[in-house]
Amino acid sequence: MASLFATLYPNHLERLTDIAEKAMHAEQCDSILIHSGTPKLHFLDDYHSPFKANPHFVWWLPVTQSPHCYVLIQEGQKPVLFYHLADDFWHVPPQPPQGFWCDSFDIHCCANLAEVKQKLSQYRSTSTHRVWIGEDTKLAKELGINTANPEGLMHRLHYARAVKSQYEIACLTQANVIALAGHTAAEQAFMAGKSEFETQLAYLAAVQLDPVEMPYRNIIGFGAHSAVLHYQHYDHSPQNMQQPQSFLIDAGAPCNGYASDITRCHSRGSPFYQSLIDAMTKAQLSVCAMVKPGVNFADLHHQMHSLVLDLLIEFKLVNGSRDELAASRISSAFFPHGLGHLLGIQVHDIGGWQQDQVGTMLHPPKDHPFLRCTKVLEKDMVVTIEPGLYVIDSLLQKWRDNGFGHLLNNLAIDQLRPLGGVRVEDNVVVAEQPISLFNLAS
Ligand SMILES: [Mn+2]
Prior knowledge:
This protein folds into two domains: 2-161, 3-Layer(aba) Sandwich (Creatine Amidinohydrolase, Chain A, domain 1), CATH 3.40.350.10; 166-441, Creatine Amidinohydrolase (Alpha-Beta Complex). A six-stranded mixed β-sheet has the order 4-3-2-1-5-6. 37% of the residues lie in helices and 14% in strands. The chain has helices spanning 2-26, 55-60, 113-120, 137-142, 151-161, 166-191, 196-207, 271-288, 297-314, 322-327, 331-334, 393-404, 410-416, 437-441; strands at residues 31-35, 70-74, 80-84, 106-110, 130-133, 147-148, 219-222, 245-251, 254-255, 258-259, 262-268, 382-385, 388-390, 421-423, 426-429, 435-436. A hairpin with a 5-residue loop joins strand 2 (70-74) and strand 3. The protein has 14 helices and 16 strands. Helix 1 crosses helix 6 (166-191). The structure holds manganese (II) ion. Manganese (II) ion binds next to loops.
């Protein structure tokens, strides 16, 4: 893999340089200093939160765990990296940076801010024309930069980030390959009767990652927990092997700072739940096949609602004519979240509502407030396709309160409730022949 990344990275960097130069021209600045980030202390404490690097920094180079670093982008110049290399006896002494990307940068190792300032002064700019990308704007001022995260520039960069280079697609593919090992181990643990907690440990052991290295907190839900969209616990209780059981796992992996985001469901001993998984998978695959350039993502979301309604009818979870059911929007009671989102450095990659490079936003339709992407798809964007169908009693009650209770088949809903729900999620590269990365890895 390292050699593939090495092969693809120069084109990625060339593309970024072109994007940055055009954005700098349009926004009248001559250089950009991108900060990796500053670690954050817990309140009244001397422990830090896990470090999460500035995604704009990670876009340029796969350095994800190094605070106090800076990348300087100047028109027509090789990018410059100011790499934090302090003498720190509390931790393993840091090493000079290594990797396939290093030759593409002029690298200065700096022990402290004074050294950064001194080295940075070699790169002349009138400070009004240099801009800062990073959270720590106080630090920007210390380095003589008064313009931080200017909106116009950020819009241009965020718009460009939606479309991935071949290097980025390779990173996302490898993130799927790593996640596959975890998903396989978790399925085995579940089938063997392990608890949610043990299943989580089996996933982490298989991907060889610490929880703080994961792109997001794994969702490992058995039974009714699978209907909690962002279920946040790992139950320790053992499974009752005499009872049928359901399992929803939403878990990814990182590669070079890029995330995978995969959901699968598994049944142990419930033909009903297995047939629901199979039907949802079929519906999900049919929408994955539509992830093509020129397609409006919101249209795919609406198409998915129509397919979820078909499933609700097929599994007799609802009563009534299709027209009446559609008019009541009852599919939203079972499938309340969006079809998916942009995927990249951020799991919910930025810019899902952004329609152009100057930052025109198209918010989701009122009836679908959680839709995270309203874009017209372009080749080499990467999106998740993640329909779901769950028993969420608070939502069903809303439909009952609005006079649609007669449309709900309570007997069938009672049967599904202890099994929770299903979601199937894949990471799809937009193309005339859409590429589903997890299936590619499998
Ligand atoms: Mn997702």
